[in-house]
Amino acid sequence: MAFDISADEQDLVDAVTRISTEVLAPQAAAADESERVSDATLKTLAEVGVLGLNLPEEFGGPGVGSVAMSRMVAAVTEACASTASIITAQFLATDSILLAGTDAQRAEWLPKAAAGEIIGSFGLTEPGAGSNPAEMSTKATRVEGGWHLKGTKCFITNAGFADFIVVYAKTDSEAGRKGISAFIVDTAAAEGLNFNPPERTMGLRGSPVYEFTIDTVVPADALLGVEGEGFTTAMRVLDRGRIEVAAMSLGISKAALDAAVAWAGERRINGKPLNRLQGIAFKLADMYTRYRSAWLLTMDAAEQRDAEVDFTRSSATAKLAASEAAAFIADEALQIHGGYGFTRDFPLERYVRDARIYRIYEGSSEIQRTIIARSLAH
Ligand SMILES: Cc1cc2nc3c(=O)[nH]c(=O)nc-3n(C[C@H](O)[C@H](O)[C@H](O)COP(=O)(O)OP(=O)(O)OC[C@H]3O[C@@H](n4cnc5c(N)ncnc54)[C@H](O)[C@@H]3O)c2cc1C
Question: Which of 8, 84, 161, 256 has its CA 20 to 30 A from that of 186?
């Protein structure tokens, strides 16, 4: 249980950590206020390959393992959670193509995504189908020259500015999960894509999420891989994505814990630093314990993924523990800052708002418990 990474991976982790500290952290508050991580910031990340960190070398990525990836995702999030959400949505889109695409689809889309020349989006959720995507109503019907896609997707990260969206749709309404397929929708070529303005979200405000309707014909080769495999692909992608959500949770937890430790050492009450009060010291100890437990579970899931064993339960466990820990740690860190923590002059209120989503997206905490419990029953 060493969670070792190679020297090359360590160099990349160091480089991503450096760019996160130097470029992402200084713009995090502004991205939150303006409700958009700037194109200039994304361009800088693209230039150093951060938008393709999940991809193997043959498609232009660095080919790193999941343990190293988790460390990098945590470092990005520690600096700016909105940026991390944009990047990990890109990973969901490109992982879909990597796992299920044909050779031609991988060759067409992945190198450009790895270079950050194009941004992707993962379109699974619908107004009537979130926790249970098998209830989706978006349909794909075979027509002359391709497929007619028709339906509505909601809460889709990156969608409004994405170059391609992996849209999941029913190709056979009678076949349940086996009737779901995925399509690569080229947003520049597709007519009949209509985006609502971004949702007014509580946190991750720099990472816009969109509802959109789709009513368009896509070419036959837009079908991602094999017809009827879409649900399986989405679940495999989310198994990976949940380790990334756990890593994002670690990033906010670390930022909040470090801020709380520093503040508790500096702020004085009755002539003594706050951390000399047992009530505050115990909070810090509990926060550290939750952080460290979440870190170990996340790296354990990543290591299982790298070992190519079944990691569905461990990724669900890591996501559940780490997302709940992040919410707890961010809230306690704000509490330790007192009234200052409630102001926007400090990042604590942003950490609390941003961390809240990790218990909801890519399967809520309730869904993670369902996955874990089901796996125990077998
Ligand atoms: C900021 C943000 C970004 C997102 N990005 C994306 C994206 O890029 N792509 C995408 O496809 N989706 C995305 N989503 C959607 C997200 O994954 C869903 O919101 C999430 O899966 C929950 O679905 P829902 O909102 O429909 O809630 P519901 O499914 O309606 O759930 C409501 C409540 O019921 C609980 N519940 C549901 N089923 C069960 C059960 N079986 N047992 C116990 N409790 C249950 C849930 O835990 C929740 O508390 C995003 C959402 C947000 C807010």
Answer: 84
Query: What is the tens place of the pLDDT at every residue in 151-209?
Result: 999 999 999 999 999 999 999 999 999 999 999 999 999 999 999 999 999 999 999 99
Q: 361 CB under 6 A from ligand 1?
A: yes
Using an 8 Å Cβ cutoff, are 183 and 124 in contact?
no
Residue 158 sits at φ, ψ, to 5 deg, of 75, -15
What phi and psi values does residue 138 have, to the nearest 5 degrees?
A: -60, 135
Tens digits of residue pLDDT in 61-111:
999 999 999 999 999 999 999 999 999 999 999 999 999 999 999 999 999
Residue nearest atom 37 of ligand 1, based on CA coordinates: 131
Q: What is the pTM of this model?
A: 0.98
CATH class of 232-377: mainly alpha
How far, in Å, from the CA of 290 to the mean position of ligand 1? 24
DSSP string for residues in 181-248: EEEEEETTT-SSEEEPPPP--SS-TTS-EEEEEEEEEEEGGGB-SSTT-HHHHHHHHHHHHHHHHHHH
Give the total residue count for the chain: 378
Token pair of 84, please? 């991390």
The strand pair at 209-219 and 193-195 is best described as: antiparallel
Radius of gyration of the chain measured on its C-alpha atoms: 21
Residue 129 corresponds to which tokens in the numbers above?
């189908």
- Pocket lining: 204 vs ligand 1, CB cutoff 6 Å: yes
What is 120-229's CATH number?
2.40.110.10
Residue 203 CA: nearest ligand 1 atom is 1
What are the structural domain ranges in the chain? 7-114, 120-229, 232-377
Report, at the CATH architecture level, how domain 7-114 is classified. Orthogonal Bundle (1.10)
- Neighbouring C-beta atoms of residue 185, cutoff 10 Å: 23
Catalytic pick among 9, 108, 362, 366: 362
- How many Å apart are CA 142 and CA 320, to the nearest integer? 39
Integer Cα distance of 284 and 260 in angstroms:
8
CB 333 within 8 A of CB 256: yes
Residue bearing tokens 């076949």: 175
Beta-strand pair 120-123/164-170: parallel
